[in-house]
Amino acid sequence: MNKDRLEQKRALINLIRQFFVDREFFEIETPVLVPSPGMEPHLHGFKTSYVDETGISREYFLPTSPEFAIKKALGNGYEKVFEIARAFRNLGELGPQHHPEFNMLEWYRPGDYRDVMADVETLLQFISEQFHPLSHPNGFSWEAGVGRITIQDCFQEHASLDLRRGISEEAYWRREAQGVLNERVPGDDTFEDIFFRVWMKLIEPKLGMDRPVIVYDYPASMSALAQLKQADKVWAERFELYIQGVEIANAFSELRDQDEQRHRFERSSQLREELGYPPHPIDEDLIQAIAQMQPTGGIAIGLERLLMVLTGEKDISQFFLQPLTAARRR
Predict the structure, then answer these.
(1) Closest CA to 312 of 100, 142, 150
(2) How far apart are CA 174 and CA 166, in angstroms?
(3) pTM for this prediction
(4) Domain coordinates of the chain in residue numbers?
(5) What is the architecture of the domain spanning 3-146+211-319?
(6) pLDDT over 90, % of the chain
(7) Residue 260, CA distances (Å) to 67, 116, 184, 267, 290 in order
């Protein structure tokens, strides 16, 4: 137990709550037992069940994010909301930057991802002025504001790859990626597999090293819950926040098309099965709710990850009262 880190965590939560309440966001409270933990192919939930007095059992999950439940509230008339919620992720989510149980800050507001970008800048400025002790790594400035760069420019600048061309030309993508990686790319690697090989080796470690940076306009195929950009629908209105090479937040303009959302969920379920994972149930109430939402931007921030970059801590477990430890092998 690290008493100092736990007190810093409580101080940050209090600051965040003050920030959003002062700006007239409503603090919502979502359930911990949910019908679907999320639909992303590579996220895995904890499963449990409720048994009634007759012995009939109903399956539930712990949420990988409060997102689905918050969107149901948005579909029922709420507009500006935030929550600091418990989230749970299974199957290998344990390491220096991962813990199976953690706190997720999410907020949603009328507008789109550009409005959320502005919120992020204001929040980080507020935190950097109020949070103590604040880490100041060599060459990094909290005062310099938040930079912005498209993901297309990230690949061009750090890997000399044309991401847009790679989306449509498999031969180009595989050949050129193999060259910049200086390693063999397996023949069965998908576009996304190669994307993440390049991203994690050549790009991500360089992001946000001098100040926080927003990377925006992700490929449409990698944005299951985001609105597509209308110009050509190659890109989605999605961004991620990076600080000191660490992904801190994921955000987007929220999709409000019921048919498209169902199609994407079905495709995610199919991909989960292809990867050998059990499909997650589609939350029908969510499908109905998103059509009732007004244009909305939303974001999720891993609170303990944010604490890591604020304090300079390298081990996320220091922010938990009783952290899980890796199982011992016999």
Answers:
(1) 142
(2) 8
(3) 0.94
(4) 3-146+211-319
(5) 2-Layer Sandwich (3.30)
(6) 86
(7) 18, 23, 36, 11, 11
Q: How confident is the model at residue 328 (pLDDT cuts 50, 70, 90)?
A: low
Q: Tokens representing 263?
A: 């199609």
- Joined together, the tokens standing for residue 228 give 């597509």
Q: Is 247 helix (H, G, I), strand (E, B) or coil?
A: strand
Reported confidence tier of residue 165, pLDDT bands at 50, 70, 90: very high
Q: Between the CA of residue 154 and those of 107, 146, 171, 215, 301, what are the distances in Å? A: 26, 16, 21, 8, 21
Rounded to an integer, what distance in angstroms lies between the CA atom of residue 88 and that of residue 322? 15
Cα-Cα-Cα-Cα dihedral of 161, 209, 82, 128, to 10°? -160
pLDDT, tens only, 77-122: 999 999 999 999 999 889 999 999 999 999 999 999 999 999 999 9
**Model pLDDT, residue 55:** 95
At position 180, the amino acid (one-letter code) is V
Q: Round to whole Å and give the CA distance between 118 and 317.
A: 30
Residue 191, strand partner residues: none
* Nearest alpha carbon to residue 320 among 145, 115, 106, 100: 100
Of 199, 166, 164, nearest in space to 181 by CA: 199
Least confident of 164-168, 194-198, 261-265, 273-277: 273-277
What does the DSSP assignment read for 41-76?
TT---EEEEEE-TTS-EEEEEE-S-SHHHHHHHHHT
pLDDT at 327: 58
Which pair of structure tokens corresponds to residue 186? 């397996």
